[in-house]
Amino acid sequence: MKVPKMKCPKYTRRVAAVASAVALVALSGCGGGGGPAAGSDEKGGCKPEDVTLVQSGRGLENEYYVSVDAGAKAFAAAKGLTEKYQWIASDGDSGKQLSQIKSILARGGECVVLNVDPNEASIVPSLVKEVDKAGAWLVTQWNTPAGLAPTSDNSHWVAHMSVDGVPQGYDTAKALFESMGGEGSIIALQGILDNPPAKERFAGLEKALAEYPGIKLLEDQTAGWDRTKGQNVTQSLLTKYGDKVDGVWAASDSMALGAVSAIKGAGKAGEIKVSGVDGLKEALQAVADPKSGYVATTQSTAAAQGGYGLALGFAAATGEIDPASEPAERRAFYLKPLPPVTAKNVESVPDPADTSQLNFDDPYAAAGTQVQP
Amino acid sequence: MSIAPSTTPTSTARAPQQFSSIIRSERVPVPALAVLVLIALVMLVVNPQFLSAENLSTLAIQSAVPAVLAVGLTFVVLMGSIDLSIEGVMGASGMAAAVLLLNDRNGFDLGLWAVVVAVALGAGLGALSGFSVTFLRVPSFIVTIGTWQIGLGIAQLLFAGKPPRIADQAFLGFALDRVLGLPVLAWAALVVVVLGWWVQHNTRFGRYAMCVGGGADIARLSGMSVRRIRVIGFILAGACAGLAGVMATARTGVGDVGIGTGQLFITIAGVVIGGTVLTGGRGGVLHSVVGVVVMAALANGMVLAGVSSFIQQAVLGAIIVIAAVVTMWRLRSRLRVVK
Q1: Cα B105 to the chain's mean position, in Å?
Q2: Which of A236, A319, B212, B251 lies 20 to 30 Å (CA to CA) from residue B170?
């Protein structure tokens, strides 16, 4: 990647050489690349070819982020900025993510577009502050502290995007219950309990349970979004409830796939129905195979989050949109809900990393309802 | 009955003495076993299913991977070092096995040779740690963080954005097919444990490893090749982590970079609860294995007992602290400084 030109030549070398670039830049008084301190309500004025695109997430060992990266790359390619696109991995470390972003902004921030999946909600305020200081453009995904959203007096936090877990949990639960004939008992595997998606998806399950009086929830347990844990917990629950279990609802595909292995180990493959959320490739393959017992998952939102996230930031940086003047439902929004994946439609669901459905002419193409602060 | 104390003890008198010597002996992990019995007793009241044959076999499967890890880690810990690279090595070896077995990504179909390659890869990463510790004199704590990342890097390289699904039915059968009521994986873990126990007690390496942990300078002055012993220890640990990665992959049936996630915590906690002291020289393979079984029994027991997910983690933490207090009580008396 080409390093944007520094405006403090005296320090350029040292800044490049020394790891603590951020500290030096701050000392030299040319914060954020030496441009005029960007006013908060100023419209972006970057030439499209000057824009640097940065996508930050956990790591490419995770299929979800591979698809996010694919969507982000597709946008970069659409604007001819492939050479100026950069993926940075936080590896699940908030401190690392923040310092990576700081050092990118230290090289000159006005035309940097960041699409960030914050490792934790709590680092969002610091992110916003850094971005403001540098005059860069930030779009956040999934995590933001309760009550904190982009406001009308600040253009640089362009938007916050998330996926509403309630319809996801509800739709997959409904498909699961239907496959069981509306009768029977299930167990539920939850994500990390204080994560908003875990709470929302479980709320969706509870909503569906209320509509199906014939279905009984025997027990819910957390499996921490983890496949091996999902397998172990399911094994233990199958021991505990034996033949009473007719279905497993899981808040993510990884845990659901773990449950499928456990069910196979218990010799009940196909008898006990399973549903997940996320649209992992492996889950799609399982849904397509009637013998697996995997009856439902959701469509992946990863490519849309990567592609539209950067598209929004880019539109703001080039002055195509003025985020501050956009209504609240375009500043913090859920993606439009997609129908769940079941055996009926699995053949027509695109690959999670497929980017051909993305329409970058309208950066708000995927915007659904407002995230209530 | 008034037998003078000077007479030779009869066989009946010797039995309790032998018993108490076993209790006091450090060859048998008595406190950890006591914790295990305690868990079983509590569960007998809460949910007797815990001791059903079905659940015991579930426990055996769930302990298999951490038990293999614990065997390898024990040798490193006995020498006073630590191996934090477990999760990375597991990722690398698991992924290597997945892409070399019959899978949906490439044309390889090496069968059991894939397992051999994967274990060798683990041993290689272990050797890298071992040589860095002994010849470059970098603390194992730092080196193994490095090899952890190298392992994850290798795994990520092999992953290439798409998880390889294993189609080799014989390999997948290791986790599914049962022999005498237990899956092949559990038997494999048992073999590793027995081998580890044998190496520790009946080979020169095993005995020397203990001495090195007790005092490396004394061991060196006694003419032992401390460096060689350390390197072998790390290679063993790497090979065990490699095998554990393959076993975990057999359970899920798909190559996963994060296959080892969470195992480091379970294994180290198990090793310490078992009574293998982190400063080296005390404990053993059997201790560590009982320790990880305690960890697996806790996780399984809490689900069977219906402990709410919201407080499970806190309960687990509290039980670990209590178990550590119980198992290490004796060690505290002997002028040992606990850091």
Answers
A1: 32
A2: A236
